Amino acid sequence: MDDEDSWPDFTLAEIKEMESMYKEIGEASLTQEYCKALATSFSFSASRAARPAITWLQVQSWFRDKQKKSQAKSKSSSKDLKLFIDLCGESISSNEPEMSDKPIGSRISELKELAFEARSSKDDAWYDVASFLTYRVTCAGELEVRVRFSGFNNTEDEWVNVKTAVRQRSIPLEQSECVKVNVGDLVLCYQEREDQAVYCDAHVLDIQRRVHDTEGCQCIFVVRYDHDFSEVNLQNSVIPSFPHSPLYCLCTCGCT
């Protein structure tokens, strides 16, 4: 409806036809010859009997505006794709030019060899990514990838936003490295639920540093989960991982 409001001289049917033509022939729709033919077709159609005739300049202006919007979306999606690729940091050869000449599909395939985690929209938890299946650009210009989570079958595949829900997989930390966690840090935190245990983003509210013993870290971490604002005290914690943000993962299950 936005295009119809922006171009009141055209009917909705005419706008839909121009949308279809632009998708089919692209920049060729901007030529004077093509715009004149389309303007004549619109002006003599039965639906325009009570409306003023359309000029070829009006048609051309619509196509030019459409071209500008399409180019803007393309630039936005390219930035998102570069962000996705940059997530791998130095994992991609530093000798590769910033803007690679490789086809997008080829670069996506290359990323399948790297280790990532993604946030599920179903439970706000982060899971290891087994593979990136495909990608798409939304109507808002956002880049999304379809992921298959490790340990799950294809019925659990999800579309996730590259900017907000994909990052490199967390790197394990030793218990002795708990000193790296500070109040205010964004953490990927272990959470027990009725049906399963998951990892969710949280923020550290308080830390009680304690002397470690033979069982490992005895510090107490008070965290608040971002998705439901619940607070929990984590004791006798193992701290197995942190992503490149940097971001830390606190775990009470003893896993490494």
From TrEMBL:
A GO molecular-function annotation: chromatin binding
Matching InterPro entries: SAWADEE_dom, SHH1/2
SAWADEE domain span: 113-229
Highest taxon above the source species: Eukaryota
Official protein name in the record: SAWADEE domain-containing protein
Species for this entry: Citrus x changshan-huyou
Lineage: Eukaryota, Viridiplantae, Streptophyta, Embryophyta, Tracheophyta
